């Protein structure tokens, strides 16, 4: 899979900025994946979103610096769905 940088630099950042500027206090992001981490400007926009809004986001489970940085924030509650499943259903 290849990153289409232009898409993140235009539509992606615009969508994040629209969410930041909206009156809605809560924003949902359906997956922040590894491709997004290749675009520093997009990552900065997502961090700004986390600074200004309550964000519910699906984040790919990979050991990438950007993901780890998001999950280490003091205002983030990360839930590992694999661990949740293992604890409750895989017996």
What does this 3D model show about the protein?
- This protein is of the alpha+beta class and 91 residues long.
- It has 4 helices and 2 strands; from the N terminus they run αβαβαα.
- Strands 1-2 form a two-stranded parallel sheet.
- β1, α2 and β2 (54-59) form a beta-alpha-beta unit.
- α1 runs parallel beside α2.
- It is globular.
- The relative contact order is 0.16.
Strand order of the largest sheet: 1-2
Largest sheet at a glance?
2 strands, parallel
Number of helical runs?
4
In round numbers, the mean pLDDT is 92
The domain count comes to 1
Question: How many extended strands?
Answer: 2
Q: Note the overall shape.
A: globular
Helix percent band: 40-55%
**Low-confidence parts, pLDDT < 50 over ≥5 residues?**
none
Q: Termini separation (Å)? A: 35 Å
Order of helices and strands: HEHEHH
Question: How large a portion of the residues is in β-strands, by DSSP E?
Answer: 5-15%
Query: What structural class do helix, strand and pairing data support?
Result: alpha+beta
Alpha carbon gyration radius: 14 Å
């Amino acid at each position: 899979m290849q990153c289409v940088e232009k898409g993140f630099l235009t539509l992606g950042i615009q969508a994040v900025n629209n969410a930041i500027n909206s009156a809605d206090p809560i924003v949902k992001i359906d997956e922040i994946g590894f491709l997004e981490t290749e675009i520093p400007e997009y990552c900065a926009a997502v961090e700004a979103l986390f600074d200004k809004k309550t964000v519910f986001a699906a984040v790919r489970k990979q050991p990438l610096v950007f993901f780890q940085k998001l999950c280490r924030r003091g205002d983030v509650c990360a839930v590992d769905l694999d661990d949740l499943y293992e604890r409750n259903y895989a017996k």
